[in-house]
User: Which sequence fits this backbone?
């Protein structure tokens, strides 16, 4: 049975990477994985060449609108033409592809905001190539937020069946984390993740665990004062608002099996504090979810995998997990 919402929109991602291959493989696994209908905004000729080169028996079905994907999905992989030819060499990214890469994201967001797509699933991008073309954003998350005017703080959440984590600060040098942290930032992040767990993940009473910044969570301010001066006031504010919050916890004891059962999401102070545990526990199944947006957005939690692009060894498990999660989120939003 088709879900009660329009098809999901997939973006092309970095054309020199594994995005096209994974999209084709995900479509091939649609029945076994019980995937909701989706289409991809890409260059049909590019995907046809990838399918042919890898001997993947997946028909490519060009479509003229998102609505056409509903019927085309049973016949082949629906592809909404991004409008630009891509001549990327697998394994060798180029800034010349930036216009098509960003054009795919732009159109997916526009369709989702218009209700013509129930959400977007983004294939990985090669940020270095985008930077070389003049791209001014840290990555997908803040770029998509930029395309959604009036949105609150976008919250990057990494989610799997075993663990959910949120890095409060993102892609900045470790030396700058302490200066970037603030009580207000932690509070706003906590509010958005608590609401997102309720609305998009179906967690009735979310439990947030907050990590400390310093070893041993500062040891009563003997190894840094951020826990006392920044993190503790944020926890107090969130508790006063009725949100279940614990911490600040020593990060080195937060993620073993028994500890994970005590919370629904871990708020971590910096990128690796969040991503190391989830990539260790769920490397192939973790999904990057952006909360705080007026649309559903997920992405596989891996990169462009340039070294294996075109070799038919890339696993679509991460993309399949992202499509499934986007479908589940869209179902919950449609029910509201």
Assistant:
């Amino acid at each position: 049975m088709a879900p009660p919402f329009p098809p999901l929109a997939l973006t092309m991602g970095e054309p020199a990477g594994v995005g096209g291959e994974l999209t084709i493989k995900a479509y091939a696994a649609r029945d076994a994985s019980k995937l909701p209908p989706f289409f991809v905004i890409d260059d049909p000729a590019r995907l046809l060449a990838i399918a042919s080169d890898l001997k993947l028996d997946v028909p490519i079905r060009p479509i003229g609108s998102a609505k056409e994907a509903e019927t085309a999905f049973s016949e082949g992989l629906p592809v909404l033409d991004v409008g630009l030819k891509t001549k990327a060499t697998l394994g060798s990214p180029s800034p010349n592809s930036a216009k098509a890469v960003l054009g795919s994201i732009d159109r997916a967001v526009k369709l989702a905001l218009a209700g013509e797509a129930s959400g977007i699933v983004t294939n990985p991008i090669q940020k270095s190539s985008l930077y070389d073309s003049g791209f001014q954003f840290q990555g997908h998350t803040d770029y998509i937020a930029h395309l959604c005017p009036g949105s609150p703080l976008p919250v990057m959440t990494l989610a799997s069946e075993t663990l959910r984590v949120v890095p409060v600060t993102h892609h900045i040098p470790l030396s700058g984390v302490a200066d970037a942290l603030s009580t207000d930032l932690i509070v706003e992040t906590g509010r958005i993740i608590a609401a997102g767990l309720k609305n998009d993940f179906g967690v009735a009473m979310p439990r947030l665990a907050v990590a400390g910044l310093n070893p041993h969570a500062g040891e009563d301010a003997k190894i840094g004062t951020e826990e006392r001066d920044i993190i503790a006031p944020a926890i107090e504010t969130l508790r006063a608002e009725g949100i279940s919050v614990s911490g600040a916890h020593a990060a080195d004891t937060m993620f073993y099996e028994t500890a994970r059962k005590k919370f629904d999401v871990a708020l971590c102070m910096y990128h690796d504090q969040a991503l190391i545990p989830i990539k260790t526990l769920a490397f192939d199944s973790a999904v990057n979810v952006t909360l705080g947006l007026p649309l559903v957005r997920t992405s596989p939690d891996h990169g462009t995998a340039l070294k294996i692009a075109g070799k038919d060894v890339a696993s679509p498990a991460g993309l399949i997990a992202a499509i499934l999660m986007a479908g589940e989120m869209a179902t919950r939003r449609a029910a509201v």
Remarks:
- The radius of gyration is 20 Å.
- The chain has a mean pLDDT of 93.
- Residues 157 and 166 are 5 Å apart (CA to CA).
